[in-house]
Amino acid sequence: MASAPFPVVEIRSVANAQNEWAALLLGTPGQTLDDATLQCLFGTADLLAAIAPLDCILLLAGPAVLTPPVLSLLPANRVLFAVNAAALATDGTARRLAELQMAGYRVLVDGPLPEGVAAPIALRTVARDARAELPRAGSLPTLFGPHLAYGVDDMARYRACENAGFSWFSGDYALEGGVPDGDDGTSRRRMLTMLALLARDADSRELEAQLKQDAALSYHLLKLVNSAAFSSGAQITSFGQAISRLGRRQLQRWLQLLLYARPHPDSPPNLMLPVAALRGAALEALCKRDGGDRDDQDLAFMAGVFSLLDRLFQMPMQDVVCDLNLPEHVEAALLRREGPLGQRLRLAETGRPDAPTLELAGVDGPDWWESQLHAYHWAIQVARNV
Fold it and tell me: What is the pTM of this model?
């Protein structure tokens, strides 16, 4: 299946120091977003509507691509430009970036300045690829932030970026698992037990009995059903009411996601939660596109959400799924990325799939993009309600 001529652009989430998504980063370091790509992506209101209230950061080689037709599609209060610092060696670039900033756009200088080029006074906010050399600790002025570090692929690099003065971060550091201090894993084991009960269609009394054993799970579930996403005006105060309000299908989905919830109400959010929601929603959307029935969509969603459990628990995926009695094709996808679902899972794991990956998964460019918009919209809502 040949991919349609549609720009496949890398998308990465950006989080702040409080582990909350703050923006999405579009583009690939070392590559450029051209005029046609930007007009295609922003030609409708779909992108910015889907990711609201998050901002969108564009990685750009220079300002030349920001023509009047393109700028007319990019609202200054929602779109930021991270412009490669090498462009400042070209006459007129610093002046053009300053003009954009005066027009209300937020401009980040991406990378170290070229030799012999002074830092423009008006451009003090920076972006850096964390895989390269970082500014020294404390050298970035907080007044001109938030400064962005991307390619932050582990916690050691995250701490180095934080010490340097960055306060926006993007990278795989968010997928580093481990049990928080004071958490012996009991709550998550109880949630796995709950999922097993749901899988065998246990009655509501068994579900309520399991919920009552876990204060953290009870807190998150009651908070969820009383949130704006579900509230009908009547306060829900019992587990029976919660199960009735959500319904068994929604309860199963939210319990899958609550595996990633913060262990205590005052703990920082777990950045794996929106990523798990993103993968689940993307796989579900692609399954629905293919005409999959409700059960197939539920299993696709489950595979996406469960794909991070080995990282969460810091244990082999085989040990995680062995007691869940998952369908064979879901196990094959989770353990070995095999089968059509496994190919789709590979697709969901990458920020920018290449043409062969799309073809193996049976997905074209427009369908991938639509699944991403749907999935990011869902993941953003999940992160705000859990």
Answer: 0.90
